[in-house]
Design goal:
alpha/beta
Amino acid sequence: MNNTKIDWCDSTWNPVTGCLHGCEYCYARNIAERFGGEVTGKETVKRITVKDGSIIWDLEKPICKTDGKISPYPCGFIPTFHRYKLDEYRNKKGRNIFVCSMADLFGDWVPDSWLDEVFAACKKAPQHNYLFLTKNPKRYVELINNTDFFVKSTNNMWFGYSYTDKHSKTWWNPDYNIFISVEPILEPIEAPKCKWLIVGAETGKRKDRVIPERKWIEHIVESCRNNKIPVFMKSSLAPIWGDPLIQEFPEELKRK
Ligand code: SF4
């Protein structure tokens, strides 16, 4: 079932790619720029407006000029809506799907209409669990407060946000499944209130890469234990933690 190297989900699904956050340690940008391809004729793409002046393409079928295949990142890391991917998991066996591993779907630049379409596609395939992850949890709050968007969300939707140091913002709402991704962990921190916590180290070869100390990991595990939060250690912690890694799931996400 697993078609991804990301060990806390079964599959990834990228109806939207690209991100404007500009994190130094971004793995997704490197992949998108490396495998980006130039698309053919203008009839395959439609340019739409965006708040901050960046270019966003709303793609129907981006055929790559070089090899005639559909390009996964035809616009590199520029935010892009791949509408043709909306039904990708419609008829597949139930699994835990990380939605938009190559984007921040809840970045301020993402139009509400894209979110509406992605959520509509999720509703059409209720056999899956959908895991969203953002560096911008205030967009969750805005959507909850200003529209009936999330009122329509269901128990198979999990709303995650990144929390990497003490300055990161927290979010809690008992009406939603909320998880936290502490990746990369940059200092010893307490676990914020959540239903699941994922922790990992920075990967890649960045010059100033932060290598976590074992006691930071012990601290966050202890904090999770005290608050009965399941912990999932990413394989990037193996050199620091050793075997076995703690890889727990909330009951609803356990693989059957
Ligand atoms: S939020 Fe994620 S996808 Fe966006 S730049 Fe940062 S690491 Fe990359």
